[in-house]
UniProtKB/TrEMBL annotation:
UniProt keyword Cytoplasm present: no
Database matches in Gene3D superfamilies: Hypothetical protein, domain 2
Protein name: DNA-3-methyladenine glycosylase I
SUPFAM superfamilies: DNA-glycosylase
Acetylation found in the keyword field: no
A Pfam family reported for this protein in Swiss-Prot or TrEMBL: Adenine_glyco
């Protein structure tokens, strides 16, 4: 992959997996509940770690968490939690593993109430992506009024390990907000995907 020919957000440079994630996924609007659940699992696992660490373990998570099938994850027994604590393909943190199972259960409660998790989460941004015009990385916020409200609502619904900073990262990853820098080649490409 030629990383020199295009201007990219500087956070993704220096690690091929990061570059492809930035070029193909980050900021693309997501309306698929399974993908939302995948990112919630990965982002809640990230707390205190780098996103690069999580991306390297993404395949391990896919294998350990039933290809991110929240219906299966919601029913993981305690015996499987113990098994996962020995799985080197994931972050072996009991609280984070149990949070993923809890969040799968809460996720389905949201689906029941709103029809889909996607409809629920998109309602916090008025149904269409927020288009930021960031000039540099230092302009990128860690949270927003929307992520504050969403994180508060998720907490009220019983979700765990999903504070405002983690939720803002989710919003960036799943295209609820376009935080590609304005000079990044993906900024305009992602902007065109609005409402698709």
């Amino acid at each position: 992959m030629d990383t020199q020919s295009k201007i990219r957000c500087p956070w993704c440079l220096g690690f091929d997996q990061y570059v492809s994630y930035h070029d193909e996924e980050w900021g693309v609007p997501v309306y698929d509940d399974k993908i939302h659940f995948e990112f919630l699992v990965l982002e809640s696992a990230q707390a205190g770690l780098s996103w690069a660490t999580i991306l390297k373990k993404r395949e391990g998570y896919r294998n350990a968490f039933a290809d991110f099938d929240y219906k299966v994850v919601a029913d993981f027994p305690d015996s499987y939690v113990e098994e996962l604590l020995h799985d080197q393909g994931i972050i072996r943190n009991k609280l984070k593993i149990k949070a993923a199972i809890n969040n799968a259960q809460r996720f389905m409660e949201v689906q029941k109430e709103f029809g889909s998790f996607s409809d629920y989460i998109w309602s916090f941004v008025g149904g269409k992506p927020i288009q930021n015009k960031l000039q540099s990385m230092k302009d990128a916020p860690a949270t927003s009024a929307e992520s504050d409200r969403l994180a508060k609502d998720l907490k009220k619904r019983g979700f765990k390990f999903l504070g405002s900073t983690t939720i803002y990262a989710h919003m960036q990853a799943t295209g609820l907000v376009n935080d590609h820098l304005v000079d990044c080649f993906r900024h305009s490409e992602v902007k065109k995907l609005q409402g698709s």
